[in-house]
Amino acid sequence: MSLFKARDWWSTVLGEKEEFDQGCLCVADVDNSGSGQDKIIVGSYMGYLRIFNPHPVKPGEGVQPEDLLLEVQLREPILQVEVGKFVSGTEGLHLAVLHCRKLCVYAVSGTLGNVEHGNQYQIKLMYEHNLQRTACNMTYGPFGGVKGRDLICIQSMDGMLMLFEQESYAFGRFLPGFLLPGPLTYSSRTDSFITVSSCRQVESYKYQVLAFATDADERQETEQQKLSSGKRLVVDWVLNIGEQALDICVVSFNQAVSSVFVLGERNVFCLKDNGQIRFMKKLDYSPSCFIPYCSVKEGTINTLVGNHSKMLNVYQDVTLKWATQLPHIPVSVKVANLQDLKGVIVTLSDNGHLQCSYLGTDPSLFQAPRVDSREINYEELDAEMKELQKIIKEATKTQDILPKSKKHRDLIVTAEVSPDLDAESQAIDSEVKAEAVPSVTVKVTIQSKVTAQKPNLAVCVQAPLAVTCDQFVFDDLEPDSSETVVLSVFLKGNCSPSELEGNCVVSYNTPTGIVKVAQCNFRLPLRLICFPAQPSKAANHKLTIDTNKPPISFLTIFPDFVDPSEDDQANVLGFQFLTGSKTTLLASKTSQRYRIQSDQLEDLWLITKELTLRLEEHFKKQNCKDFACTFSGSIPLQEYFELIDRHFELRLNAEKFQELLSERAVQFRAIERRLLTRFKDKTPAPLQHLDTLLEGTFREVIALADAAEENQANMFQAFTKLKSATHLVIMLISLWQKLSTDQVAILEATFLPLAEDTQEL
Q1: Do the domains 411-525 and 6-214+233-359 match in fold?
Q2: Which of these, 591, 707, 710, lies nearest to 657 by C-alpha position?
Q3: Three-state DSSP class for residue 204
Q4: Helices H / strands E in the chain, number of each
Q5: In 226-254, which positions are buried (b, 16+ CB within 10 angstroms) versus exposed (e)?
Q6: What are the domain boundaries of the chain?
């Protein structure tokens, strides 16, 4: 038995699927029995109020029926329970229950039973306050130094402190600069309220200042009144702790200095009454709740801190004195006097595990049982060992194959791209200004080895490329059946794409309801976006790719672009893009080099990529494994930066157009409202040129919308060009530095995170 486990003295689980939080636990002599024994009061978000008086016969025994004094279901969720002198004319303790929109104060009383069922307890509603605002938490105390009674202060979700003098509402004040409610407590020594604001600072407000400040009902005052009146709510002191607080406690013991304890997300702070830090403790875990209590050593304070690792740590000031394991994560912890046992630790978890525990250990009475000795049959063991080794050997032999077959071969999707362009183009709604926009057929086949329910095929290509149909839904596929669809890909936008690749994704359900996905990629031919043309000698941008093999004739590697009858095309080749630009490819007759040149930097990318791919495929067919391309020129960074600047400028323009459009739209609606009121008026009044103004604004809105659309089209083109140029720069860096595939993937992930261009990214 571990010394560092919390010893279970009494525990129970409250209700079923109920939720609890920080304010739901309270310990006090709520029925005014005078015995000095505390009762445990628990409220839940389901509206159940329970009061326990634990009496275990021996430690660790389960809950007895008579331990539950009272269980009532109130109609609303219980946010917090507190016990204090809340009823006028008596100094007896009463129970305050905080709901979302109501505060109720009850008297708890017991009547002696004259049969074996024991005493009977009931609650009586003394008074209630209906709240105008949704409550968050509350605190109580002798505000203003009153004697013999407690007042209640409730903090609402929108930052209003509502103060109640027992049966009557006193006043309400809004906290300045409020955003979200934090923990709230009252310090009787300084007569002030202490909270932690959304600015992550501890703030203290004097009760006198709250009482004389401007009323919350007059919050809608003008700036002039704000400046002239001297009744604004002023903070007494502020301390920036730099983190959100979970709880605040004010402690005042005889032998220790009065202190304010603040539990942050990573630290515990102990402050003096004037807001100065006495000490702080950095925590290496995530705390969930805490409570300071009286220490035996003079001048120090003990603190219990619960955390999300199910641990309860005991600190004396900043020194860790003990750590103990709990069976649950505590959301609230209290120290109580129960059944002549002082200092019982009461913890409550968010799902209703309530436990009373003590620290230390009980002597263990466990004795290890004797082991029956039996004779060992070595022959049997040898045979079993050989059998197991045989199974292990089989498993390791087929390890690489088996999981893949299970994982990937349930459903296979393949895409076959036609080697020739379509005889009759399938292009629809293309914005390209060329005479004819070609298209290519892609045949997608789905083969299923299992029952595939609701298979759904999506075919994706990068804009400005488009497909004739991108979504297909099939009936359920039987095992060993297949489906085939045919679609065409064409160039839709009036700019060259940055990639000639597409992918097919099939999602389907297995009979057990698991969603699975199968996918494949396909490569589109270069002929889809360009056609052979006369080479041009002059060009603004030139790249030279070096290889370690003699140059190959273009008749061999570009048969689809070269006319075999023309010998002069063996070393020089021209490509005319559908969008109008031209690129030339030259092979050196003497050295092992190829040159790509064009007027636009981004047009070099697809031709350079196609050249390297086709050269690699050519040498692969000839079983030549040491072929390599390199690049030794200078990387065209200046031109690349110009493309980045152009794209950035268009993004700024898009934002500007959006702002202008929203301004004009607001103006347009304002004029419309004015006109409507004029038209509805029973006595006709002159329009005062409002109709002219409306027409002018309407024209401006339309013109701005047209300009924004044009800018969007330009931005898409700039984005595609930038992507192509980025691909080119990454490729040149990889050829220059001879990078591996993994290193290129890292570069691409860094420089090419955008799949599409939006204002949000």
Answers
A1: no
A2: 707
A3: strand
A4: 9, 42
A5: eeeeeeebebbbebebeeebbbbbbbebe
A6: 6-214+233-359, 411-525, 529-610, 637-752
What separation in angstroms does the CA of 610 have from each of 406, 616, 624, 631, 717?
36, 10, 19, 16, 22
CB 163 within 8 A of CB 153: yes
Residue 631's alpha-carbon distances to 638, 730, 733, in angstroms, are 18, 12, 8
Is there a contact between 306 and 312 (Cβ–Cβ < 8 Å)? yes
Tokens 């002599």 sit at which residue? 29
pLDDT value of position 295: 79
Assess contact for 116 and 129: CB atoms under 8 A.
Answer: no
pLDDT at 555: 86
Neighbours of 491 (CB within 10 A): 26
Let me know if 445 is exposed, middle or buried by CB neighbors in 10 A (0-12, 13-18, 19+): middle
Assigned token pair, 188: 């009787």
CA distance 756 to 749: 14
The pair of structure tokens assigned to 217 is 């009902």
State the Cα angle at 212 between 260 and 86, rounded to 5°: 60
Domain 6-214+233-359 CATH assignment equals 2.130.10.10:
yes
> Which two tokens mark 535?
């080479």
Beta carbons of 571 and 629 less than 8 angstroms apart: no
Contact 257, 299 (CB under 8 A): yes
Please check whether the domain covering 411-525 is classified as CATH 2.60.40.10.
yes
**Consecutive sets of 10 residues in the chain, 761 residues long: mean pLDDT of each?**
75 89 92 86 93 82 81 92 92 93 92 68 92 94 90 93 92 90 93 93 93 66 42 87 93 79 94 91 93 84 92 92 92 89 91 88 63 78 93 72 52 92 88 87 92 91 90 90 92 89 92 88 92 87 91 87 71 88 89 90 90 91 88 91 93 93 94 87 79 92 94 91 92 91 90 66 55
Cβ 600 vs Cβ 718: under 8 Å: no
